[in-house]
Amino acid sequence: MTQMTLNVNGSPHSLELAPDMPLLYALRNHLGLNGAKYGCGLGQCGACTVLVDDQPVFSCLTPCTGLEGKAIRTVESLGTAERPGPLQKAFIETQAAQCGYCIAGMLMRAQALLEHTPHPDEDTIREHMASNLCRCGTHLRIVEAISRVARQDRSAV
Ligand code: FES
Ligand code: FES
């Protein structure tokens, strides 16, 4: 076990972890952040997507070692049930979630896109989101939700 400090959603957390522990396990089992989901564990579904230094990563494949000093963000940083952020609001309005299992990962990958490219066209959204899968098949609504936010006149997402 190794003592390390992970910066998650703007707060430092001192944790004793096996260095090769995937970030997903640290988030869910040690920090109680259950938004990111375990889907395939193989980097093939995107359910576990979080941001590390503003880049989407598969947290099921990202070992905790090497993450000290980096800014980790999870879906919990985007808003709350009472005060959803713009993307969360758009996902609710378009009813983009069915079972919801993929949605936290979808939101974080979309968040990364909108921070980098605030007004992407639909092709760009589709290409960017291609690595995140939805078994319920709500991709059309997910793209519509992201497009809604992309069309908004806003200074920050
Ligand atoms: S659980 Fe990480 S990509 Fe599927
Ligand atoms: S809403 Fe069920 S997997 Fe996407």
TrEMBL record:
Example GO molecular function: metal ion binding
InterPro entries: 2Fe-2S-bd, 2Fe-2S-bd_dom_sf, 2Fe-2S_ferredoxin-like_sf, 2Fe-2S_ferredoxin-type, 2Fe2S_fd_BS, Beta-grasp_dom_sf, Diverse_Oxidoreductases
UniProt KW keywords: 2Fe-2S, Iron, Iron-sulfur, Metal-binding, Oxidoreductase
CDD domains in alphabetical order: fer2
Domain 2Fe-2S ferredoxin-type, residue spans: 2-78
SUPFAM superfamilies: 2Fe-2S ferredoxin-like, CO dehydrogenase ISP C-domain like
Gene3D superfamilies: 3.10.20.30, [2Fe-2S]-binding domain
PANTHER family (UniProt xref): BLR6046 PROTEIN (PTHR44379:SF6), OXIDOREDUCTASE WITH IRON-SULFUR SUBUNIT (PTHR44379)
Protein name: (2Fe-2S)-binding protein
Species for this entry: Pseudomonas palleroniana
Lineage summary: Bacteria, Pseudomonadati, Pseudomonadota, Gammaproteobacteria, Pseudomonadales
